[in-house]
Design brief:
CATH architecture of the largest domain: 3-Layer(aba) Sandwich
Strand order of the largest sheet: 2-8-7-6-5-3-4
CATH class of the largest domain: Alpha Beta
CATH topology of the largest domain: Aspartate Aminotransferase, domain 2
Number of helices: 12
Low-confidence stretches: none
Largest sheet: 7 strands, mixed
Mean pLDDT: 96
CATH superfamily of the largest domain: Type I PLP-dependent aspartate aminotransferase-like (Major domain)
Helix content: 25-40%
Strand content: 15-25%
Shape: globular
Length: 345
């Protein structure tokens, strides 16, 4: 299994900056209504989750037949790999390491296109286009905003690559799990013209990783192909009935936006003041950083101060002094900044 964020040690009261979850925690309305859903546990949920798909489609203003539900976005990564079994897969790196694992399981040949750290890990579209001409991949994988670099690639900028993908009869597998935290545009409208499959996670924004809830968007041909390989009943009753509660919780969504804008500004200013640290421009709720000491050494020092961070040595193209931190509430952010200052200064 691949390495992921999250604290798994025995120490109590750890502030976990390694997982990119909304610090406002699970909406109270959702917690209250889960008790109501519990009365339905003696019945099977909908096989394909039609009710949930309809709610998501209405929320996004698209056809229900263009939506597929997943037991977390992670299920849809592995489902796409099984359904399409691409011979060649091009992954834009560094990025989430489950993509490579999923496609290796179906014997895809993996190619890597490396973002340039000197440019802040932005994509050189011309180089990427040329590399696609050389490799001719069946699937190109892009995470946008990207995990762990927090970079975002604009739609207009990426259209040149999309034309290449379309002309090669290939697919773009696009992970937008962190788009809700940013004020950036989704690629959803481009699914009408280009062969794009988009996955979204409800885990991060609504702080419900324990429920396992995600969805995918694509044209009807892509969704039909995925449904042929999808197991029945992967979405349980509680997850299915939670979709409407989450998407219609206007109060929680408003509070999240207010928190994000305020704390993002705070973190941008405070990270600038820390000596011996480089951080990269973030378009979502976490930062990729780099120091002169190894991230493992930094992590060990921070654990002693009850803080956990995500070391990034397992990401393709990153080094042992890269690490990732999420944005939490003000008191927790202040404590992290103070401890980084003490250690790195």
């Amino acid at each position: 299994m691949n390495k992921h964020g999250g604290y798994y040690g025995n120490k109590k009261n750890i502030l976990d900056f390694s997982v990119n979850i909304n610090p406002l925690k699970t909406p109270e309305k959702t917690i209250e209504n889960i008790k109501k859903y519990a009365t339905k546990l003696h019945k099977y949920p909908e096989i394909e989750g039609k009710t949930g798909k309809k709610i998501i489609a209405n929320n996004l203003g698209i056809d229900t037949k263009k939506v597929i539900l997943g037991n977390g976005a992670i299920e849809l990564i592995y489902l796409f790999a099984r359904a399409f079994k691409p011979k060649k897969v091009l992954i834009i790196q560094p990025t989430f390491n489950e993509y490579e694992r999923a496609f290796k399981l179906v014997n895809s040949e993996i190619f890597h296109f490396q973002r340039d750290e000197k440019s802040g890990f932005n994509i050189d579209v011309e180089k990427l286009s040329n590399y696609i001409d050389k490799v001719k991949p069946d699937t190109v994988i892009l995470c946008n905003p990207n995990n762990p670099t927090a970079t975002y690639t604009e739609k207009e900028k990426f259209k040149r690559v999309l034309e290449k993908i379309k002309n090669n009869n290939s697919y773009l597998f696009l992970d937008e799990s962190f788009i809700d935290f940013s004020n950036k545009e989704s690629f959803i409208e481009l699914t009408q013209k280009y062969p794009i499959f988009i996955i979204r996670s409800m885990t991060k924004y609504f702080a419900v990783p324990g429920i396992r809830l995600g969805f995918g968007i694509g044209n009807k041909k892509i969704i039909n192909s995925l449904n042929k390989y999808k197991e029945p009943w992967t979405i349980n009753t509680i997850a299915l009935n939670t979709i409407s509660e989450l998407l219609n919780d206007d109060s929680y969504i408003k509070k999240t936006k207010e928190w994000y804008l305020k704390e993002k500004e705070y973190m941008n200013e405070k990270l600038k003041e820390i000596k011996n640290i480089n951080y990269y421009k973030s378009n979502t709720n976490f930062y990729l950083c780099k120091t002169d000491i190894t991230s493992k050494k930094l992590k060990d020092k921070l654990i002693n101060k009850n803080i956990n961070i995500r070391t990034c040595e397992d990401f393709y193209g990153l080094e042992n002094n890269h690490f990732r931190i999420c944005i939490k509430n003000r008191l927790e952010n202040e404590y992290l900044i103070n401890q980084l200052n003490l250690i790195l200064n």
